[in-house]
Amino acid sequence: MKKLFLAPLLLSAVFATTGCNDAEATSPAKETVIRHGLIGSDFPILRASEVPATSTIVFLSGSVPGVSNPDAPKGSMEAYGDTEMQTVSVLNRIEENLKSLDLTMGDVMKMQVFLVGDPAMEGKMDFAGFMRGYKQFFGTDEQPNLPSRSAFQVAGLANPNYLVEIEVTAVRP
Q1: Average pLDDT over the chain, rounded to whole?
Q2: Overall domain count for the chain
Q3: Does any domain span residue 105?
């Protein structure tokens, strides 16, 4: 019995083949990935992204926040900060990790966000705080690329004072 192997399609004429217009899909300067924006929304995530077979996919492990306030009691919630501060701390760590791999935040294609319920918000995740931190790194004039993304509220993370853990997948052209 012959095995049939179907190689992924390498799409170069993205806008013509996907039926998307410029408002719905963007292609980064490297022209190695296809990013499909949300239809009828300016929410800063993608609805989908495509990676050509000629690219390398890089999976980064989850990152957690560092201490944001060294003057706070060691190991306390105050030492790590609120959801926005923790998000910025985590994304800075991810940015450093990507840089060490010769990648940038603009190469991030997929993001999974794990948010713990914030005690200051009656145990509900602070999605607005996360978004304030996220928008400092994605969809900016300096770094306009957006990832496809999921966000989850989880019961807890490795440290009881962590409110945020983020895992990303990047693409190396």
Answers
A1: 85
A2: 1
A3: yes
Phi, psi of 25 (to 5 degrees): -140, 140
**Residue 72 is assigned to a structural domain of this protein:** yes
124 domain-assigned: yes
**Which pair of structure tokens corresponds to residue 87?**
């998000």
Q: How far is CA 8 from CA 25, 72, 107, in A?
A: 20, 52, 20
Q: With a threshold of 0.90, does the pTM exceed it?
A: no
Overall average pLDDT of the 45-73 stretch: 94
Q: Say if residues 126 and 40 touch (Cβ distance below 8 Å).
A: no
Decide if 19 is inside a domain.
no
Residue range of the domain that includes 139? 55-172
pLDDT digits (tens, 9 = 90+) for 26-57: 444 445 789 999 999 999 999 999 998 989 99
Q: Tens of pLDDT along 87-117? A: 999 999 999 999 999 999 999 999 999 999 9
